[in-house]
Design brief:
Blueprint lengths: L2 H23 L5 H7 L4 H4 L1 H13 L2 H5 L5 H20 L4 H12 L2 H12 L6 H20 L1 H11 L2 H22 L11 H5 L5 H21 L2 H7 L5 H28 L1 H22 L3 H29 L4 H30 L4 H25 L2 H9 L5
């Protein structure tokens, strides 16, 4: 491919992962509207987030392995086609159960597309610098889908209708599906890593420590994030428009945190891995105290977005640096851990809401982050227990982009 077409190809991948993550996390911004439209409780509406994430957690290590020898373009079209069809069905779902089904089915193809897109992006370019730039652009699509999708969906649902937000999810995936047909070349798999070689990373204690840390830190962050729009409306008393604006600011600051994380992890890895969850705990405590003050809450959430962005990248960093010899499989495991954490965290925070109200969701987030800090400490101990040469190899095998 000519260099210009490489840029276009990477752009298609980036928008593709945006569409996938937008479908998953965009519903966070419309939980109150789903609750009202389908006459279900807010925690029940939260199953649209936790249920999706649970399926991703199960499919994370299995789907990439199952399709590892299939033409990459075929995999892309299959995944995007399933997402597009189910997103269309969700627009007109007459019952909550059918809406739930329309989200669960495509969730299995989430890790297939995202893992593949990130792996392909790392090979696009003639030099390591160009390849790193391609990877960072695709990861930007992941981040944008996670943090920009919810406020956009919240705005559409609040100003138009719930169906407008659901249509937004469908339009993005349909556009990328058509762009993939027209712009992406056939990509047959030439060499596939053996299953045994990839599975062998599960023998490493540092990998398990990293995965468990990801489960709980991510569970704390996204458990609260899943109900953030409800928190702003119920506890802070923000209008629907204000909720959309604050979610958008949070998303923008989250992306800033993604950029800063590379510098922070590169210069002070251990300090960053430990300090970010601790700082998260501090901000959750502040939100619990000042949550009823809308202006102060908006300011706190803006800074929280930066911290969460760094912490989110740190999770992926921990897993990938613990198993650089199997990047595709470790990336699938990371998606499993992250989404399992989202499922568990959303369920716990939802249980706190059911018992003590929306403000109590912070309690569930705090519990998860505290446990996550313990597993980060275990990971650090695992690496220090290695021989100096092995620890140095594992620590420098993959630098953050």
């Amino acid at each position: 491919m000519a260099y210009a077409s490489k840029n276009l190809f990477v752009f298609v991948l980036a928008v593709g992962v945006f569409g996938i993550l937008n479908t998953e996390m965009g519903v966070v911004g419309i939980i109150p509207q789903v609750s009202e439209w389908y006459s279900v409780s807010v925690p029940e509406a939260g199953f649209l987030v936790s249920g999706f994430a649970l399926i991703v957690a199960v499919a994370g290590p299995t789907m990439p392995l199952l399709f590892s020898k299939v033409n990459r373009k075929t995999v892309m079209l299959l995944s995007l086609g399933v997402f597009s069809l189910c997103n269309l069905l969700a627009i007109w779902a007459p019952t909550f159960e059918l809406l739930f089904a329309a989200r669960i089915i495509p969730a299995a193809f989430h890790p297939l597309y995202v893992s593949m897109a990130m792996a392909i992006a790392s090979t696009v370019g003639d030099t390591p610098a160009e390849q790193a730039k391609s990877s960072s652009r695709v990861f930007a699509g992941v981040s944008a889908g996670m943090v920009i999708g919810p406020p956009c969906a919240s705005f559409l649902a609040g100003t138009e209708a719930l169906q407008a937000a659901l249509a937004f999810f469908a339009v993005v995936t349909i556009v990328v599906f058509l762009a993939t047909i027209l712009l992406v070349p056939s990509m047959p798999v030439k060499e596939a890593l053996s299953y045994g070689g990839q599975l062998s990373i599960l023998k490493k204690p540092a990998v398990w420590a990293s995965l468990l840390a990801t489960v709980f830190v991510n569970g704390g962050m996204f458990g609260f994030y899943s109900f953030m729009s409800d928190f702003f409306g119920t506890v802070s008393g923000m209008s629907t428009l204000m909720v959309s604006v604050v979610l958008l600011v949070y998303g923008g600051m989250n992306i800033v945190g993604n950029v800063l994380s590379g510098f922070a992890l590169g210069r002070a890895e251990t300090k960053t891995l430990l300090s970010m969850p601790v700082i998260l705990l501090g901000f959750y405590g502040v939100l619990f105290v000042v949550g009823g003050l809308s202006g102060v809450t908006a300011l706190v959430v803006a800074v929280l977005g930066v911290v969460a962005g760094i912490a989110n990248n740190a999770n992926q960093y921990m897993v990938s640096r613990s198993a650089p010899e199997a990047p595709d499989f470790s990336n699938g495991l990371y998606l499993t851990a992250a989404n399992l954490g989202t499922t568990m965290g959303t369920a716990l925070c939802g249980a706190f809401i059911a018992q003590a109200g929306t403000q109590a969701s912070i309690g569930g987030a705090v519990i998860f982050v505290v446990v996550g800090i313990g597993f980060i400490g275990w990971r650090i101990a695992c690496l220090r227990a290695l021989q100096p040469s092995q620890a140095a190899c594992e620590s420098t095998a993959s630098q953050p982009s």
